[in-house]
Give the backbone structure.
Amino acid sequence: MRLGFCTQQACAKGTTRQAAGFYQKGESESTGGKRLADIISGMPARERSFRVEAVVLRHSDWGEADRLLTLYTRERGKLTAIGKGVRKLRSRKAGHLEPFTQVALQMAQTRDMPIITQAETVQGFLALREDLLLFGCASYVIELIDRFTYAGEENQALYRLLVATLERLNQRVLPDLALRYYELRILDQLGFRPKLFECAHCETEIQPIDQFFSAPEGGVLCPKCGQGAQGARPISMKALKYLRHFQRSTFTEAARAHVIPDEYREMENILNYYLTYLLERNLNTPAFLRRIIRQMDTHNPENTP
Ligand SMILES: [Zn+2]
């Protein structure tokens, strides 16, 4: 159930050990034994405290009672912070800092890593925790943004896309629609918009017949270029038609299309092929999501003969 949240960022570990130790014991090698309050009061006000709005991507235990949180913030992009004392039973911050939650945070900057001093829930997205399928979908949304972004690169449009997608899933919008739309938009935001209207190789206009899709070429290949091309996969005209429609539509317009499940599967396979090619490794959550859907099919009485 915790798939996708437990992976530690190796690069963050070295610095956060110092920070976590510092807060537990009140001193640290890295700070020369000074107290937190002294360090913060010695910094200019502008630097020592700041506010962000964020979605919690994942967390891991840190020290005795603390938590290391990976956040996607509106103001600063991806950010790692310490939630001090969050694992204590009576912590008032704890409930606000679960994965998927949209939060408003007050932070105290330290030399190593920000500390969360106040947390307030903006949207709790409870349905995403209560429904296994929605949990799997939200985990995939989080995994994609986590894998594709680096710390400190602000992208407000990407933040808005993340929040809007979690809102759609929480409102139980058809997951296929919400996820395919999210994938196409995240590709736009990250500069990997696939070419779907002209052949990515010879640039001739794509005709209304079955085509090929090539991840290395970054889009559709006409039958002449696609036949036998390394890494090119067939794509039906219908699946391509909906990919094109989703790519240039608002979500409301995309939601009006009558896409059948087989066409959604084909779109999913093509986009997954392109995304994993770009990441140069497989994603964890699609297999997890497929397992949930298989289990739901097995347990659905309508599916038993
Ligand atoms: Zn071509």
